[in-house]
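Side project, low priority. Logging it here so it doesn't get lost.
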Amino acid sequence: MDVEKTKLHAYEMFNKISKSYDFLNALLSLGFDKYWRKSPLKWLEKDQAIYYLDVASGTGDQLLSVLDKMPNIQKAFAIDPAIKMLEIAEKKIELKNYKNKVECIQAKADQLPFENEYFDFSTMTFGLRNLSNMKDGIKELYRVTKQAGQVHIIEFGKPHGFMKPLFNLYLKFFLPFIGKLFSKHQYAYTYLHESIQQFESNDEVTRLLFEGGFQSVFRESLFFGIINHFVAIK
C-alpha cells in the first residue's frame, strides 16, 4: 500500500466507513478512546469563555468530550474533509443541544478557513498522521491560534518493551480482520496499520511543532506509549 498516495484521498475512505466508525473505534480501543480524548481538559480553564477548533473532527467525539466539560465555550467549529463523517457529528451535536454554538465545516487541516489568531485552543485527535502535508497543517494550526493559545494533538505512538510486539500483532492481524468484519472495508484498517507504522517519531513531531512556530511543546505518554498527547503553546 502506498500510504502517502492514500492520504491524498483519505477523506473518501473515511466517508465509506463513516457508519461503522464509532462502533469500531470503541471496539478496537477497548473503550479507552473516550478517556484519551479527555487529556486536553486538564490543561484548559473550564470557566473561560473561549473560541475552540476541532480539526479532523470526524464524527465529533473529541469536540463533544470538550464541550461536555466546558459549558462556557462561546463558539466551536468542527473541521473535516469527509462530509459523511461530519453529517454524523452534526446529528450528535443536535442531540446534545450544542447546535447554537457549534458549526461544522468541510475543510482540510492545511487550508483552514479562519483569520489569524482566532482560536484560544484547538484539538486534533488521530488526524495528524493522515495529513498529506504535516508541516502545512501545523503551520495552519499555529496561524489560527491566539498568542499563548494551546494546540492539543492526540495521536498513535510506537510503544517499547513488552507492548511493542503485542501492538504490532494487533495492528497487522486483528485490526484489519475486525475492520473488514464490521465495516466491509479492510483496506481502511490496513491503511490504519501502515500509517501508524510509518508515522513520525515523538521527537520528530515535537521538532515539527517547534519549527511551526510554537514556543513550548510538551508530550504526555498514554497507555504504554501507544497513544501520545502533544501540547503546543504559541
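Brief comment: Residues 3-233 form a domain with the Rossmann fold fold (CATH 3.40.50.150).
Revisit when time allows.
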